[in-house]
Amino acid sequence: MKKMLLHVCCAPCLLVLLDGLKKYDVTLFFYNPNIMDQKEYQKRLQAVKKIADIYDLTLIVENYDNEVFLEKVKNFVAEKEGGRRCFICYELRLIKMLDYLDDYDFFATTLVSSPYKNKDKIDQIGAKLDSKYQVLNVKKENIDYAFMQTRKHDIYRQKYCGCIYSQKTKKTAV
Predict the structure, then answer these.
(1) N or C: which end of the chain has fewer CB within 10 A?
(2) 31-44 pLDDT, tens digit each
(3) Fold classification of 3-168 (topology level)
(4) How far is it, in rounded angstroms, from Cα 158 to Cα 144?
(5) Which pTM value belongs to this model?
(6) CB neighbour list of residue 66: distance below 8 Å, 6 or more residues apart
(7) What's the burial of 102, exposed, middle or buried (CB within 10 Å: 0-12/13-18/19+)?
(8) Does residue 26 register a pLDDT over 90?
């Protein structure tokens, strides 16, 4: 069975993809320095841990350091949500995975499952970083399934992407 390292932005986005990943030996990778503040970060991490426990998945958690994110995007704070600031954020999170790729056949990210993210841009960034990047397909029925699972397992669903700049928009993320 091929081994996949899967970056996880949040539990609901993970649930969207889980059913299609059963054919792989998946290790979850939680690295999200964009999330503001520590309390919000912990809520999302605990939700991912809950899913990892339910589905018996290994979880790697990288250190939380919001300052890394803030430094990377400091020249793009005025960008609208979904613009260059977000592209920098996607890349920041995917780059961190490269340190672990020797043990995996390929890597991917749950960022592509959010209807509020630019899936094409995420896939471009992943492919540019390493040829081991795997494009994942997201089906509408999987999004509906994820909503049902968050209710069934009482999984935290955030109302915004995570960074201080996205807090202003407060869209419901999947």
Answers:
(1) N
(2) 999 999 899 999 99
(3) Rossmann fold (3.40.50)
(4) 16
(5) 0.92
(6) 33, 34, 35, 36, 37, 41
(7) exposed
(8) yes
